[in-house]
Amino acid sequence: MAAPRGEFSSRFGFLMAASGSAVGLGNIWGFPTNAASNGGAAFLIAYLILAFALAYPALMAELIIGRYARSNAVTALRKISAGERSRAAAMLVGFIGIITVSLILSFYAIVSGWMIAFFFDPLARIINFDSASRWLTTDAVLRNSIFVVLFMLVTVIIIRAGVKDGIEKWASRLMPSLIIILILLIIYVLTLPGAMEGLRAYLVPDFSRIVEPALVVDAMGQAFFSLSLGVGTMLIYGSYISKEENLPTIGGLVALLDIGIAVLAGLLILPAMYVALANGVEIFDAEGGLIAGPGLIVSVLPALFNTMGSIGVFVALAFFLLMTIASLTSSISMLEVPVAYGVEHHGLERKNAAIIVGSIITIISLIVVFYFDPLFDMVVTFTTEVSQPLLGFSFCIFVAWIWRRNDILQEIKQGSPEAENGLFWKVWPFYVKYICPLAILVVYFQ
Ligand code: PHE
């Protein structure tokens, strides 16, 4: 007999959990660097348009299916499919989503492990433990493996505790801390010489770039990754929302929080890079673009913190704490997807499912650590550029072409009885039916 399903106890709890899933390395690292290398505010504008016009409708599709079916992605997609063939497709899409999100977690855990190592580095330096500091900041298989295991352990512990006592409790503590740390860091960095130059690079648009296909493709990929779409994360979080909640409103709030925090992060990262430049740190790569890859986080910013004198240690601590929190509230949402499937489909106990699935993903992650060079880029590209857009496409197809329209309306009306006459119901069905799948395909084949 399966245990009763979890449910978020409040709107705030859901908002923190879902925005915690959405806000991650993608916002704080990916968005600002993407913006910087794609014409500054031109990217920002393209991103805002795509996020609201395409990603938000896709987010709503997942939340609505989840809350209607009150189950994991595989079961939920089957439940909204009537025919034999669509049920088989449902099984396939749900399953690929589970595999994809597990693979995303396997590379995410490696990067998150770096963030923890760099968080411990200033602590080691405060107590003058120089050899530890060197070990923590030098890329090595042993260091990476230890921190992958540590990060996955914390993720598993939170997921073991369940929806209310694990996900909701921790997201409600961590997300407000993240916002406070982010704002404090922005205020501090903006007072430093060079910061205004960075603001200019971020906020002055180069409109000649806005029509470039590469910019639009990047902005769309960024929006989908950032809102955790296509892989069943938002679906499973949606399945824990109370039937009294107004779905279009809370989905909108999640999108707003996610986009807002990405935009805020740009106010930190780009000014910080130009402050680093003013302090003599190299911030451009060989081609003359801004350094955006791992080098930004593990060498440019630490070099900046080193030039800040004694306060630099605390700025470094705050920054890597911010990155660790952002990672953790995302990783728990990823692990929840296969765990919920294991519990609901295979009758596993949650605690055991968390340990089994967590261990499997840790092993995959360690394999990627050992064979980093070919594997890391391969896993990232396959999951985020191939699998995620195709899954996003499939979710739209399921909602708009396979699921009965009346069932959708009845579901939305729970918690929002007036929905039938509202703007959302006038626009959204058309969007998920035609615009979203078409746009995803166009961008995909670019
Ligand atoms: N949205 C997260 C980020 O921006 C990543 C993520 C992708 C989380 C897919 C869950 C599922 O970093």
TrEMBL record:
Q: Which domain of life is it from?
A: Bacteria
The Gene Ontology CC terms held by the record are: membrane
Q: How does it sit in the membrane?
A: Multi-pass membrane protein
Cite the InterPro entries for this sequence: Na/ntran_symport, SNS_sf, YocR/YhdH-like
Chief location of this protein? membrane
| UniProt xrefs under Pfam families | SNF (PF00209)
Cellular localization per UniProt: Membrane
Which UniProt keywords are present, listed alphabetically?
Membrane, Transmembrane, Transmembrane helix, Transport
Matching PROSITE patterns = NA_NEUROTRAN_SYMP_3
Any stretches that span the bilayer, and where are they? 12-32, 44-69, 90-120, 140-162, 174-195, 215-238, 250-276, 312-333, 353-372, 379-403, 423-445
Query: Which PANTHER family does its entry note?
Result: TRANSPORTER
Recorded protein name is Sodium-dependent transporter
